[in-house]
Amino acid sequence: MAQAAASTCEICTAGPGEYYCQQCDQLFCGSCKLSHLRTKISKNHTFLSGPNINKEEKLLCTEHDEIFFFYCNDCDTPVCRICSVEKHSRHLMTDLTKSTEKLRSELVKTIETKITTSSQNVSKIERETKAYREEVKAVIKNITDDGKYLKNLIDKKVDSFVKLVQDEEHKALQNMSTITKLYKGVFENCQQWQNNITEMETIADVLLLRKLKQLKIDVYNIDLKHVPEMSYVSYRKKNPSGTEIDNLFGDLQFREGKALLENTENQQNTRQKEPKESQKKYKYECNSCRIKRVSTTEPITTLSGQGLRM
């Protein structure tokens, strides 16, 4: 590919050929380019520079070796002067340079709009992402705080239950100790009385009778009651269901951001699948250039083209 830096100006042959005129198919230096654009006939010529220059690639009509001056809107192609008369005489024609500049301007505006919109969307997503992460942190903290609060209540309840059981144990053990001492005293007295009776065998009957009567009074004064029911303690476990545990916490709510993307994709797919407007459409082919076009207006059948109704 021939670059401007390796060629000389084809007008003055002195300066470097840094600029390529697309209409004249020539290399110009900076000074000759300015002079060329000051000339009335070439003031609208367009130039390429730098790595865009490719002088070996002739941008000319392959049939007539002529420069493209017009753009055929019907055939969607650039045409030279001869083609505009021979093949595109009834077609809608516009100046190639103006058409190119118009298209370039439209694309620049469209790209700038998309850049602005994309930038705004990125900023919005970044803000919402930051806000969402803060929401996640807040939700996790609330759940953790609820768990700590419930755990604290459970710990207090456990301590209360344990203290209650321990207090009841202390009272029950005191009662049991008192009853045990009582029956131990009766047991020891009976053993002592048993020994006394054995020792009284050598005493005279009159004296023995008197002592036995007194002993009888002491023995019968002791009322041996049945041992009372002992204290009782038990604990019946509960197995709370998952629903009961869930009811102790708040409600979690989610909004799937993915659904927004899915809706966008669905809308795009719907637009692609939507049938085109129900109106008559015509297909025609230019007999000269053989380019097929589709139009909503009925084409005129002439010697240069034939209209076919769809």
Could you characterize what this model shows?
The structure is a single chain. The protein is mostly helical and 310 residues long. The chain is 50% helix and 10% strand. It is built from 6 helices and 9 strands; from the N terminus they run ββαβββαβααααβββ. The protein has a 3-stranded antiparallel beta sheet. The protein has a 3-stranded antiparallel beta sheet with strand order 5-4-6. The longest helix has 104 residues, at 96-199. Mean pLDDT is 79; it is low at 1-5, 274-279 and 299-310.
Strand order of the largest sheet: 2-1-3
Number of strands: 9
Output the radius of gyration.
56 Å
Number of helices: 6
Spatial gap, N to C terminus:
47 Å
* SSE order, one letter for each helix or strand: EEHEEEHEHHHHEEE
What structural category arises from helix and sheet content?
mainly alpha
Indicate the percent of residues in helices: 40-55%
Shape: rod-shaped
Strand content: 5-15%
Mean pLDDT: 79
What does the largest sheet look like? Answer: 3 strands, antiparallel
Question: Helices, strands, pairings?
Answer:
Elements (H helix, E strand, L loop, with lengths): L18 E3 L4 E3 L1 H9 L8 E3 L20 E3 L4 E3 L1 H6 L6 E3 H104 L5 H16 L21 H5 L11 H16 L8 E5 L5 E4 L9 E5 L1
Antiparallel strand pairs: 1-2, 1-3, 4-5, 4-6, 7-8, 7-9
Short description:
50% of the residues lie in helices and 10% in strands. The protein has helices at 30-38, 81-86, 96-199, 205-220, 242-246, 258-273, and strands at 19-21, 26-28, 47-49, 70-72, 77-79, 93-95, 282-286, 292-295, 305-309. A three-stranded antiparallel sheet has the order 2-1-3. It has a three-stranded antiparallel sheet with strand order 5-4-6.
